[in-house]
Amino acid sequence: xxxxxxxxxxxxxxxxxxxxxxxxxxxxxxxxxxxxxxxxxxxxxxxxxxxxxxxxxxxxxxxxxxxxxxxxxxxxxxxxxxxxxxxxxxxxxxxxxxxxxxxxxxxxxxxxxxxxxxxxxxxxxxxxxxxxxxxxxxxxxxxxxxxxxxxxxxxxxxxxxxxxxxxxxxxxxxxxxxxxxxxxxxxxxxxxxxxxxx
Length: 198
What we know:
single chain, alpha+beta, Alpha-Beta Plaits, 2 domains, four-stranded antiparallel sheet, 54% helix
């Protein structure tokens, strides 16, 4: 029994045909790999864009938080200068300007200021706290002007309490507690300089 193959089936496979098949297989493989690389690249770029946006948002948040800290050294120097000016302008070094200012305000407003007692605290931050207890007598309107003058005075006064202690024929008697501060005198360099002199 001799079976013959049809004529179209009799194809000779040559080395050239094998090369064509190998090149075709390589082209298909390259096309598949190229498609996968493009899809992966797109995914990475999309992820990078989201991550980049997240980093930018974090950067902006950090910049906003650190904005008040920029130039902090200059701000500290300005604050120290302002503190020094405030201390020199509003806090005397001894009791006499305090007593003189209280007396001048009382005389200006026709208020009788009596029995002023002073109590000095310990030094803190370059200042002594001075608590005062005083009695006031006068008409209502002058006392109000006196209190207003204390609050607006160049010397720093804090009114802690006011208490009515009596009233007679239009005159009001008050007990007032207030606080002020005295600068701590820096006498250490003067004492050391005096010791150095023969």
